[in-house]
Design brief:
single chain; Jelly Rolls; 4-stranded antiparallel beta sheet; 3 helices; about 15% helix; globular; binds 2-oxoglutaric acid; binds fe (ii) ion; AlkB-like; dioxygenase; Alpha-ketoglutarate-dependent dioxygenase AlkB; Oxoglu/Fe-dep_dioxygenase_dom; oxidoreductase
Length: about 210
């Protein structure tokens, strides 16, 4: 454990080694565990549910206009345009709480971010298919800090060549960081699950090239 790391404890009070790489090769993923008390995490979950301008995600896939059940939002330092699934969105200005969460993520990871993509999964029916966050607009191999609030969900990585998979659970109020060549070599997904009936909010702080 690096001496600048803030020590986090898991559910059983066991120290989490935030330097431990969860990927066996070709990238780096660190799980910081819960950064917040139950009360703080509940507070942020409620604030995000109520203050973020959630919109159903739209996509054009194989000529079809698709509207997802999952909701999304896009915030940033400036009105960056972010294009995915052939649809451009302009970043909204930071809210007070998003700025707080950005600062906390920056302090934990030692990296600064200029934008945040948010996802709202209403229940376990909603998830996200395998993808990498390797769009041209993102700084190559830059760190992505992922904060989760609400229902605990399973998260998977799959190596693009070897197909090896790594699985973990993203807890209420937890931080995960994906960095180095992770997006080049690994896909990730949030699988749907019958076991979860509660909503979850995820924030991914990112660095856009400007
Ligand atoms: O919900 C999550 O934990 C992951 C979201 C994700 O992969 C993304 O927004 O690119
Ligand atoms: Fe992603």
């Amino acid at each position: 454990m690096g001496k600048n790391n803030i020590q986090t404890l898991d559910l059983f009070g066991k120290a989490i080694n935030t330097d431990q790489n969860l990927l066996p090769y070709d990238g780096t993923v660190n799980y910081f565990g819960k950064l917040f008390s139950q009360q703080e995490a509940d507070y942020y979950f409620d604030v995000l549910m109520n203050t973020i301008e959630w919109k159903n995600d739209e996509a054009f896939i194989m000529g079809k206009h698709i509207i997802t059940k999952r909701k999304v939002a896009w915030y940033g330092d400036e009105a960056y345009s972010y294009t995915y699934s052939n649809k451009s969105k302009l970043a909204l200005p930071w809210t007070k709480e998003l700025l707080e969460l950005k600062k906390i993520s920056e302090a934990q990871t030692g990296v600064t971010y200029n934008s945040c993509l948010l996802n709202l999964y209403h229940n376990g029916d909603e998830g996200m298919a395998y993808h990498s966050d390797d769009e041209k607009a993102l700084a190559k191999d830059s760190a992505i800090a992922s904060l989760s609030f609400g229902a605990e969900r399973r998260f998977l990585f799959k190596h693009k060549q070897s197909k090896e998979t790594i699985t973990l659970f993203l807890e209420h109020g937890s931080l995960l960081v994906m960095k180095d060549e992770t997006q080049t070599n690994w896909l990730h997904r949030l699988p749907p699950t019958k076991k979860v009936n509660q909503p979850r909010v995820n924030l991914t702080f990112r660095t856009m090239v400007v």
